[in-house]
Write a structure and sequence with these properties.
This protein is an alpha/beta fold and about 550 residues long. Helices cover about 30% and strands about 20% of the residues. An eight-stranded parallel barrel has the order 11-12-16-17-18-19-21-22, surrounded by four helices. Strands 5, 6, 8, 9 and 10 form a five-stranded antiparallel beta sheet that branches. The longest helix has 20 residues.
């Protein structure tokens, strides 16, 4: 992983520490609710053109006038400093309603709400924040999902025209969309205007047309599309989307700007534009699944902020996720929205990263505290090390059958599944969340046979798990840069010729799957159905380094 070097001063570190001290208390590694907030906002729902909230209190807090004041804050605001949207008589159970103001300068769709009382002439916050949790209630572009199976891949766009994706039989594809490519500055040539919340934003007509044609190409061949939103910064049209604590660094992807008004409003518009355009209702193709960022626990690589504090980073990500979720689902209520973490569950290979488990726990804490929504988990269960060629036989030092395992790979993926079955992780309807294995690959550097068997093992293991909704091979064709690190992850070579892994993946999930299973069993030395059915986990000694 590439570590980002900060090029400007460290003034934000002091601010981050003060912010953390202000908003939370950490006791024995567990966050507890700040004292003095006796009121709970138990729900915030859209109903018609209004937002209806329910406020409850075991003990009604004292105030100068016996009233509750409800504020709508932007994500970067803290305390009763935003817009006062309602005033009601205080009580132990109170219903309050105020306008949604959807698609106006006063839109409350992605704001957070809090309750205050007036005490000594000052507004005192007496509740935690809460977001709207049913943005789909206003969705005018909702489409039926294109769900046909879990078999997917990161494709080469050229494989649409060659027919190879159709030949391969993939049911899903995953692709990246970059903010620096699609966002344009006013005055740029060839822009596509989009008016939202009272402002007009510009998008690159050429790049959007490229994505239109690509998404429609996938859809026309019956493939469901998952899109990953990445923030590379670097252009006049997207520079305000880079978080202030990320500016001046060189990284593949930056944290989104949830700290400034201009960046927040721009992000809202970007998400609304994408949700509408790729709803399947505008003639530009349909994207069913959206992932915010890539492996965001890998701070110094994929969600860069100049803070090594877990809470500061997760808080910023959750704020971006709320905007992403609400704005997308307010256009197409059937999209699924995912976060993204890597396989480094209990061990960090890079000191600048956070453990995937810690990040997931903290993310879930904030979501539950501020209004549970139907988010999904995008997980990348790569082998450890990444170039290890044996999906079915990992190093014992890294792959364990307990929640304390250093890594979660396809061998012990059931640990993740069981973890997500905990009551605190369930969706608002009480269901286990959608789990997308949106990136996983196996190298052929140490032999085509190992890649063949690994692809079969990974797919069949995923297919055996009802909670897994996607298995996305990374990638269709080898990448020359990755190959320098023994990561020959494509199922086709650089020249486009097919590897044996292409043929075995083609058979999986079809009437010819038996032949694929027989081939994989021969390579592994055990019946693959039995291995998966009985959850047999082979491990080997040593540090996993393959010579």
């Amino acid at each position: 992983m590439r570590v980002c070097e900060r090029k400007i001063g460290k003034k934000w570190k002091g601010f981050a520490a003060l912010l953390l001290l202000t908003v939370s208390v950490i006791t024995c590694g567990r966050k507890v609710q700040a004292a003095g907030r006796p009121v709970s906002i138990s729900s915030c729902h859209i109903a018609g053109g209004n937002v209806n909230c329910t406020l409850t209190a075991a003990g009604v807090p004292s105030g100068d006038d016996g009233k509750y004041y409800v504020y709508a804050d932007e994500v970067f605001q803290d305390g009763p400093v935003g817009t006062l949207v309602a005033t009601v008589e205080a009580g132990s159970s109170v219903a309050v309603s105020f306008p949604l103001n959807y698609n106006t300068p006063d839109s409350n769709l992605s704001r957070k709400f809090l309750v205050a009382v007036k005490r000594g002439g000052q507004m005192i916050q007496v509740s935690d924040e809460h977001y709207i949790t049913n943005p789909e209630a206003v969705a005018a572009f909702t489409s039926g999902r294109m769900s046909t199976g879990i078999k997917g891949i990161l494709p080469e766009v050229s494989a649409i025209a060659t027919g190879e994706l159709k030949d391969l039989g993939v049911q899903q594809v995953v692709y990246n969309i970059y903010l620096d490519e699609i966002c344009a500055a006013p005055g740029d040539a060839g822009t596509l205007p989009f008016s939202y919340n009272g402002q007009t934003y510009c998008f690159s007509h050429g790049r959007i047309d490229h994505y239109d044609q690509m998404v429609k190409g996938f859809n026309n061949q019956g493939m469901q599309v998952t899109m990953v939103l990445l923030n590379r910064g670097g252009t006049a049209g997207s520079e305000d989307l880079v978080h202030p604590q990320a500016r001046g660094a060189e990284c593949p992807s930056y944290a989104l700007n949830v700290a400034e008004s201009g960046g927040v409003e721009h992000l809202k518009a970007v998400c609304a534009f994408l949700g509408q355009r790729y709803s399947g209702r505008t003639g530009n193709g349909q994207i069913d699944n959206w992932i915010l960022g890539n492996e965001v626990n890998a701070r110094t690589s994929w969600w860069y902020m100049d803070s090594a504090n877990l809470d500061v980073n997760v808080s910023a990500y959750v704020k971006a996720f709320r905007i992403f979720y609400n704005e997308l689902k307010a256009m197409n209520g059937n999209v699924w929205v995912y976060n993204s973490i890597d396989q480094e569950w209990g061990r960090k290979s890079n000191p600048g990263s956070f453990l995937a488990k810690d990040y997931l726990d903290q993310f879930n804490y904030y979501i539950n505290r501020e209004g549970n929504i139907d988010w999904g988990l995008s997980y990348h269960p790569y082998n450890s090390p990444l170039y290890d060629p044996y999906a079915w036989n990992g190093p014992a030092v890294w792959v364990k059958k307990s929640v304390s395992t250093p890594y979660i790979t396809m061998q012990n993926i059931d640990i993740l599944i069981d973890y997500m079955h905990q009551p605190k992780f369930l969706s608002p309807s009480g269901q286990v969340r959608s789990i997308s294995l949106a990136e996983i690959g196996y190298t052929s550097y140490f032999g085509n046979e190992n890649q063949e068997a690994s692809v079969a093992y990974g797919y069949l293991k995923a297919a055996s798990l009802p909670d897994v909704d996607a298995f996305m091979l990374f990638r269709f064709k080898d990448d020359a840069h990755e190959m320098e690190s023994k990561l020959n992850l494509g199922i086709t070579n650089l020249d486009g010729s097919h590897k044996p892994a292409y043929d075995i993946y083609k058979q999986l999930g079809t009437a010819n799957e038996g032949a694929a299973k027989a081939r994989a069993s021969e390579i592994i030395g055990m019946d693959i159905d039995q291995m998966i059915r009985d959850n047999i986990v082979w491990t080997r000694g040593g540090d996993g380094v393959v010579q």
